[in-house]
Every structure is written in C-alpha cells, then in structure tokens.
Design a protein that fits this description.
HAD-like_sf, two-stranded antiparallel ribbon, 9 helices, 5-stranded parallel sheet
Length: 229
C-alpha cells in the first residue's frame, strides 16, 4: 500500500537536546574536580534516554520513571532523581539542568529535519509528531515556521498514552485521517517507536546521534520507502 502519512518521533529523531559550556558553568564534583566531556555526555544521555532504566530507583521513583511522560509532576520526580544519582552535586544544579531539558527552544533540529518536512508537504503527505514527552514541544517548530508543516502533535501527556501503546499511534492517525497500514513511523527507539508496526504501519529506525554526525538519516528513510527519488 502507498504511504499516505508519516509519523515522526521528536527526541533523537527530528530534534536532539545538545548542551554547551553554559550548561555546566560552576558545576564541579564534590571533590572539586571539573566535570569532563565524557561525564557531560553521560548526563545528557540519561536526561534523554527513551526507555532504559538508567539508575536504581525505589518504589516511588520507579513508578514516577515508568509514568514520567504521562504527568509533568512525575517526570520531575524521576528526572531529578536521575540527575542526583548521576552525581550532579546539588539540587540547584539539577534544577538548572532540568529546566534546560524542559525548554523546547533548547532543542537542536537535525540537519535534514526541515528538508523532510518540506518535501512531505510538497507531496501532500501529512505529518504527525508522536512523542513520549511531558511538555509542549510545539514552540520548537513554531520558532522555525515549521508548525504549518505538521498536521498533528500527539504528545503522551496530552493523550494519556505512551509509545508503544497502540492508543497513541491511533490518536495521531485518527487526527490525520489515515489508516495504520498506510503510515510510516520514523523514530530512534525500536521498542517505543517500533510499536507502530504492531498496528500494521511501516517503521524506519534512525540513530539518536549528535546532530553534526547524522546529516541525512531522515532523508535516507524517506528514500528507502519511496517517498523521495
């Protein structure tokens, strides 16, 4: 069947949370040592991990982690615990890093994100962004004039379901008016985003690499599914 709609994940697919030195200003480990580049990368990975259990949780924080993308309050509990257990020295430092995570304007688009959205719009192929996330990501698109290229924003905390739950995919497809077997889902998690395949949708996996290291994975996914010559 011809692909009539494309669903995109947000984090690690269309956009990526990337830091700079300002994120770690005045942040040192308790022994006075400055945080190094590998430790910075690990903190960022833990802040954006899609499904992994990345630290040990007690019963309360485990519940918050498992349901973090359904409720902003639970997300805060879970992520503050992740940051503490990742060695972030103070709650003030953790709050500062967490605030960056929640700011949609801090997220960096992949180099080919604009191109794929424009190419699909030019072919009248509707697009939905389907994300497990506890905050509104629409400003990331509006700030770049891309909101007009997205037919539906299907966010877990708004619809009350998280990928791979079929309900979140059905919500996006219903808004676009497209059947599951006529859709392509593109995302960086085989477990979460790949859940669309259970509905009969096609699925393309991309790697959540730094944006500078992944220039055209989205274009390649469209090409493989005959949406780009």
């Amino acid at each position: 069947m011809t692909i009539e709609a494309v669903l995109f994940d947000f984090s690690g697919t269309l956009f990526r949370l990337e830091d700079d030195e300002s994120w770690y200003a005045d942040l040192t480990w308790p022994d006075g040592r400055a945080i190094d580049v590998h430790e910075k990368a690990e903190i960022m990975r833990r802040m954006t991990a899609p499904v992994d259990h990345i630290v040990e949780f007690d019963a309360e924080t485990k519940y918050a982690w498992d349901n973090r993308d359904l409720d902003p309050a639970l997300h805060r509990i879970a992520m503050m615990e992740v940051l503490r257990k990742s060695g972030v020295p103070t709650d003030e430092d953790a709050e500062r890093l967490y605030a960056r995570l929640l700011d949609p304007l801090e997220w960096t688009p992949y180099p080919d994100s604009e191109a794929v959205l424009n190419l699909l719009a030019a072919q009248d192929v509707p697009v939905a962004v389907v994300s497990n996330i506890p905050f509104d990501i629409r400003p990331s698109f509006t700030a770049r004039g891309w909101d007009r290229l997205v037919g539906a924003f299907t966010l877990s905390y708004e619809v009350g379901a998280m990928k791979p739950d079929p309900e979140i995919f059905h919500s996006a497809l219903d808004e676009l008016g497209v059947s599951a077997d006529a859709a392509l889902m593109i995302g960086d998690s085989a477990e979460a985003d790949g859940g669309a395949a259970a509905l009969g949708s096609r699925f393309a996996l991309v790697e959540a690499l730094p944006t500078a290291e992944r220039p055209d994975a989205l274009l390649t996914a469209l090409r493989r599914h005959r949406l780009l010559e």
